[in-house]
Specification:
CATH architecture: 2-Layer Sandwich
Low-confidence stretches: none
Number of helices: 3
Helix content: 25-40%
CATH superfamily: RelE-like
Number of strands: 5
Largest sheet: 5 strands, mixed
Shape: globular
Number of domains: 1
Oligomer: single chain
Radius of gyration: 12 Å
Mean pLDDT: 92
Length: 89
C-alpha cells in the first residue's frame, strides 16, 4: 500500500492561492489529491526544476505550482501564472 504524502503550505502559497479564481482553486484541489496519493502521477505533469530539488506542476497551460518532497511531506511553495507560479516574480 502506498504511503500518503502530507501537505505543508507556505505562507506565500496560501496568499497566492487565495488570489486565484475559484475554478483554478478547484482544479488545484484535484491536483493536490493526486500529489498526496502519488507524487509521480502523470496527470500532475510535473517535472523537476533544473539544478534544484523543487518540482513544477501544471494547473493549466498558464498556471503552475511548485513543491518540494521532503521526508514524506509535500512542501507547497508557490502557485500562480507561469513566472509567478515558478517563484520568478
Amino acid at each position: 500500500m502506498a504511503q500518503l504524502v502530507i501537505p505543508v503550505f507556505t505562507k506565500k502559497f496560501k496568499k497566492q492561492f487565495k488570489k486565484l479564481p475559484f475554478s483554478l482553486q478547484k482544479r488545484f484541489d484535484i491536483k493536490l489529491s493526486l500529489l498526496l496519493t502519488n507524487p509521480r502521477h502523470p496527470s500532475l505533469r510535473a517535472r523537476k526544476m533544473s539544478g534544484t530539488e523543487i518540482f513544477e506542476g501544471r494547473l493549466t497551460n498558464h498556471y503552475r505550482f511548485t513543491y518540494q518532497l521532503i521526508n514524506g511531506s509535500a512542501l507547497l511553495l508557490t502557485i500562480g501564472p507561469h513566472d509567478e507560479g515558478l517563484g520568478k516574480k
